[in-house]
Amino acid sequence: MTTLLVLGGSALARRTADALRGCFAEKGIAVRIVYALAGATSSPRRPRGEVEVLSGGFGGAKGLQKWLHDNEVAAIIDATHPFAEQISENARQAARALALPLFRLRLPAFPRLYTKKRFLVSSVSFAETLPRLVASLPSSYRRSVLCALGARRIDSLAKRLPARRLLLRSFASAQRQGELRLRTLRLRRARCLDFCAMGPCSAQSVRQEMRWMKRRRVSLLLCRDSGAREAFAKIVAAQRLSLPVVVLARPPSPSVPTLSLRDLSPILRLVQRQLPSRSESRP
Q: Taking the mean position of all CA atoms in its chain, how far away is CA 76?
């Protein structure tokens, strides 16, 4: 049976795994789909149906390469978060070492809603440029800053952001949240550490974000261009509240074939035509 690895952890990845399962079921093709999670969240959402789920990572590029070889994986589908650079790089290295096809799926970037109050920061040097940019803004913008840049960026930024009050939100695992809470308390920079559950970007969730921001008197939003509609609610809410927004641009993308969720035919053709000969020749 052909095995496909979907690198997951995002809503797009779940939809990709579901779409592949449905596509192959409709064609009557038996395919083993493995959905891999890094284990960053305590209760991740999983694909529907007969999809095998792995959690906890592979142990870097070498560990991933070994797992791919041992499980005779035919192709890798990278549908991770746009800012999961290390996972994507591990997949690229492992695929190149084993001469495996690697496909990538990414959500479109957020619409450019802002003009005067929207600032874009490169992800390559954000640790240096972001604090300088925030420091250059009017002091009224720095009263209560909502930092929604991901758990692993919190530690590096909490000491350096020139904000009177720093609000942090993370979707990390319960253990990671506890670590972040303790570190934040030690830093004594953030006087409020909040965690929230993800939900669809609907009118209701935008209203919830607006209430959340009003209650905490948010004066500036720092966020990433993930493209996820679940994350877009806070940007829409900030726009309606006339708040300035600093957006962390996506990291540079490697030269990997990029697919759309609407057209997964290259993977289907790979399974139908190429894989039998590849599996027979594999040592």
A: 17
